[in-house]
């Protein structure tokens, strides 16, 4: 099939995407901050029969992202898809946000996606081939959530980059889309829930449960639910789709 680079692949949604795409028959380059985590996922990928390679990189560092793309091409013998999945959350009332807070989250969630877009487009161009760029936005990229204001801003920004890149690269046969999960019970949500508890006096688990209670389909979202949509985006059935960022949230209505 094709060679896919997934960032933030060491756990949560990124891990599920890596495993789903490996099961679809793609070879996978796993990129994350910590080697131990991606080494374990690489073993799981190899069990599916697909190739796996790991590369430690911080997506907020442009040179490291370009190096990750080069590594993918060398190790897997191709480069067809990038999934710019890595991201961090931040829970704070807007009044409390300081410059160092916005810099950090912006560097990972927005700059990190931009470097991934640039590096992938440059590589597709140098190889003279088409390619697919897939970015992690969020339901918080469609609605500004209280206490998640800066996080929401970064995810709106990911949608903006997705739309702009889709227009800039369309003539080269490069498609650019995003996925927008709702509430997925990964480590990210454990951290969000704890921070809500500290700030609002809610019991631990209460905020997560409230959000899950607002999901129309009546069950919590799994990383595999997200990975199923990314499987479509990474495969040939999405060839005529670009610049889109659909919600995959089970019909979440709680705000
Ligand atoms: N969990 C949710 O409910 C949810 C909802 C909507 C969108 N998202 C988005 O989906 C993506 C994955 O979320 P998750 O819940 O799996 O998160 P997670 O915290 O469980 O995992 C994120 C992974 O990204 C890695 N990472 C963080 N910063 C990095 C950096 N600078 N460079 C490289 N890797 C880095 C972490 O080490 C970790 O392995 C994120 O972009 C997140 O914003 C998550």
UniProtKB/TrEMBL annotation:
> Gene3D superfamilies given for it?
NAD(P)-binding Rossmann-like Domain
The protein's annotated catalytic reaction(s) are: (S)-acetoin + NAD(+) = diacetyl + NADH + H(+)
Out of the domains of life, which is the source? Bacteria
Keyword set, alphabetical order: NAD, Oxidoreductase
Q: Does the keyword Cytoplasm apply?
A: no
Q: Could you tell me the EC number(s) of this protein? A: 1.1.1.304
Recorded family membership: Belongs to the short-chain dehydrogenases/reductases (SDR) family.
- NCBIfam families linked: 23BDH
Q: What is this protein called?
A: diacetyl reductase [(S)-acetoin forming]
Source organism:
Rhodococcus cerastii
Q: What is the lineage of its organism?
A: Bacteria, Bacillati, Actinomycetota, Actinomycetes, Mycobacteriales
């Amino acid at each position: 099939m094709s060679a896919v680079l997934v960032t933030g692949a060491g756990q949560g949604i990124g891990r599920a995407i890596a495993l789903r795409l490996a099961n679809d028959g793609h070879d996978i380059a796993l990129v994350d901050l910590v080697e131990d985590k991606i080494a374990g996922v690489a073993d799981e990928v190899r069990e599916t029969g697909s190739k796996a390679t790991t590369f430690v990189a911080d997506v907020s560092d442009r040179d490291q992202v370009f190096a990750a793309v080069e590594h993918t091409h060398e190790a897997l013998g191709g480069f067809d898809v990038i999934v710019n999945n890595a991201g961090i959350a931040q829970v704070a009332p807007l009044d409390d946000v300081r410059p160092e807070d916005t810099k950090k989250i912006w560097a990972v969630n927005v700059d990190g996606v931009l470097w991934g877009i640039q590096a992938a487009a440059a590589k597709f161009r140098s190889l003279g081939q088409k390619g697919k760029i897939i970015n992690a936005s969020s339901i918080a990229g469609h609605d500004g959530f209280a206490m998640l204001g800066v996080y929401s801003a970064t995810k709106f920004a990911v949608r903006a980059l997705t739309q702009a890149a889709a227009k800039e690269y369309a003539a080269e046969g490069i498609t650019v889309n995003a996925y927008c999960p709702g509430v997925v019970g990964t480590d990210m949500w454990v951290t969000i829930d704890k921070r809500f508890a500290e700030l609002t006096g809610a019991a631990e688990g209460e905020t997560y449960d409230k959000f899950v209670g607002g999901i129309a389909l009546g069950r919590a979202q799994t990383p595999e639910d997200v990975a199923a949509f990314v499987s479509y985006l990474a495969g040939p059935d999405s060839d005529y789709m670009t610049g889109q960022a659909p919600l995959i949230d089970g019909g979440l209505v709680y705000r």
